[in-house]
Amino acid sequence: MDRLKVNIGGLSLKNPVMTASGTFGYGTEYADFIDLNRLGGIFVKGTTLIPRQGNDYPRMVETPSGMLNAVGLQNKGVDYFVEHIYPEIKDYDTHIIVNVSGSTIDDYVKCTEKLVALDNIPAIELNISCPNVKEGGMAFGTSCASAAKVTKAVREVYPKTLIVKLSPNVTDIAEIARAVECEGADAVSLINTFLGMAIDAEKRKPALSTVTGGLSGPCIKPIALRMVWQVFNAVKIPVIGMGGISNWRDAIEFILAGATAIQIGTGNFVDPAVSVKTIDGISEYLNRHNIQAVTDLIGKLEV
Amino acid sequence: MKKMLDFVVRSNEQLNDKNHLLRVSPVTNEALPEIRPGQFVQIRVDNSPSTYLRRPISINFVDYCSNELWLLVQCAGDGTAKICALKPEETLNMIYPLGNSFSIPASNQARTLLVGGGVGMAPMLFLGKILKDNGFSPDFLLGGRSAKDLLLLEHFEKYGTVYYTTEDGCKGEKGFVTQHPLLAGKRYDYIYTCGPKPMMVAVAKYARSQGIECEVSLENLMACGFGACLCCVEKTIRGNVCACTEGPVFNIKELRWTD
């Protein structure tokens, strides 16, 4: 199975298929459906310094080929994660990566500091792209200066693999990627959700309690692919691609566009076994095309 | 344990202008697991470009003899229309069984009332059967807009006494379920309800005023159905909790319903 191995900023993955933060709980929610040990990695739910109740219901609405969510980073906080959740999941034979979110740079740094000492958390994903929180979140990811600042501050306290998750709600995602690369990010993951909204024409009301929310699912895939391609051509660090991936074919497309690894998000809701099916599908693709290793495909789009 | 499994449609019976009763069995013929009243399934909708997510449908009845699940489906949009259009021998993919269940009182001397409105009658049938199997004598109070909205009456009658209300008065008492004289005349120990939110709020208000234990089954919008997306939250005294895993059944003491 070594032919599926990839490397993300010093972190060796058994295969390039991981699950996206906010769509996979802490992994255990999926244990009835798949063998979690088969995954390249699991990005657990966005974690903040202080517990958050999230936004009011309704938080979700289906849209053509996708959905909008406005969960708002509901989580029990980093201390609860360290004490109660980490012991339950730390022994899975896959990489558990924590998605770290905050409202201030100090929040990000303090939250990260509590995760550094956990032996079986080899990496964090810095979430500077959540569109559903009033303060911070996406605000950090929409300007080069603030993205660089938060990356720099977290880099100083975090010696392990640091992945920065980028927002697509920007004019030029490549320049944000370059900014976080300059401050020492080991990899970038993209894309988070697009800011969108849905309206109930009969009631003349927004479908979400927050009016706007994050759009995900197959409807965003073409834009995600384009952004992965742009960022791949702009930075030297590995790119983790995501955005509407629902099967192995989508995953291969992202890898060809330049992704070293991929994350599956909203697709898990429809098919909780899609991640392992994607691993198998990539394997079969390599066989069929007589390709030695998945790394031979990264960015090999023939243009 | 939750499972994702293909089912075959054994029959699809149209009950009125918008409701269908689908009887489905695992394609593999594997035996159905233990299913508790109040649990639900998530059905994948195939061949519907406008539908992306699965559709949560409550389990109406479990027939272990024929290894069939009954699903009462209301045709409400593109997704449910596709499900309602399934023909015998066609297949559908489901994740099941999901959610918690109604609680069964410790003593079967407890007087139980099961209140269902519209398609919300669905889980009351299986709950009624389980109660009867455990020695209870449940009463059913079913409400609809008109007589055609009272569904599966011949099945409910097997498990208890059935009372009705219709808004147009053409069957049973005229009005809403909470206006039925039964509530003034008989003292219950436990009320279970599922239906439109205003109906459940009214039933909960009545139960609270009388000091009666009451459980409601919620139909919050959800994406995954198994606790991963955190979309279907309900505000409770414990904070926001997922209706798909901590519910869909809640004791009204846990809810922050203001009425």
Give a description of the structure.
The complex is a heterodimer of chains A (303) and B (259). By secondary structure, chain A is of the alpha/beta class. In chain A, 29% of the residues lie in helices and 22% in strands. Chain A has eight helices and 16 strands. In chain A, the strands form four sheets. Chain A has an eight-stranded parallel β-barrel, surrounded by six helices. The longest helix of chain A has 15 residues, at 274-288. The radius of gyration of chain A is 18 Å and the shape is globular. The model of chain A has no long low-confidence stretch (mean pLDDT 96). The termini of chain B are far apart. A seven-stranded mixed sheet of chain B has the order 10-9-8-7-11-12-15, sandwiched between helices. In chain B, strands 1-2-5-4-3-6 form a six-stranded antiparallel beta barrel. A two-stranded antiparallel ribbon of chain B has the order 13-14. Chain B has two domains: 3-98, Translation factors (Elongation Factor Tu (Ef-tu), domain 3, Beta Barrel); 112-217, Nucleotide-binding domain of ferredoxin-NADP reductase (FNR) module (Rossmann fold, 3-Layer(aba) Sandwich), CATH 3.40.50.80. Helices cover 16% and strands 34% of the residues of chain B. Chain A binds chain B through residues 22-25, 29-30, 32-33, 45, 53-54, 56-67, 69, 71, 74, 217-218, 266, 268-273, and chain B through 1-4, 44, 49-54, 95, 220-235, 239-240.
